[in-house]
Write a structure and sequence with these properties.
3 helices, 111 residues, DUF3861_sf, 47% helix, two-stranded antiparallel sheet, DUF3861, 13% strand, DUF3861 domain-containing protein, alpha+beta, Ubiquitin-like (UB roll)
Length: 111
């Protein structure tokens, strides 16, 4: 259930090419995720601030945001003990790089 200050997103993954899976079908995957951040705005900033293709930057931003959300929600779970410090550092570095690129006026055109 969505809280007043949260954004609610539907994430969809659909196979568009490649061999069929073992059952001969590739049903799309869709799920909802709640975030205190606007994930689409984050994706836009990363796409604009990284020297990656638009698809790579989108996948990076979305993947990190989704992983970070699960890690934060389950921060006391021992499964995530090793990744928490590294993920915090990585996210900090990513934010710094995106901000640095933005402040230098080196916004990458989306492709």
């Amino acid at each position: 259930m969505s809280t007043k200050s949260a954004h609610l997103f539907r994430i969809s993954v659909e196979k568009i090419d490649g061999p069929a899976d073992y059952a001969g079908t590739s049903a799309p995957l869709a799920f909802e995720v709640e975030s205190h951040d606007d994930i689409l705005a984050i994706v836009d900033r990363v796409r604009a601030g990284m020297a990656f293709t638009a698809d790579e930057a989108s996948a990076l931003a979305l993947g990190v945001k989704l992983l970070g959300g699960v890690v934060l929600t389950h921060r006391r779970d021992p499964l995530f003990a090793d990744i928490q410090p590294a993920l915090r550092g990585f996210i900090g570095n990513l934010k710094s790089r995106v901000a640095s690129t933005a402040s230098q006026g080196q916004w990458k055109e989306s492709s």
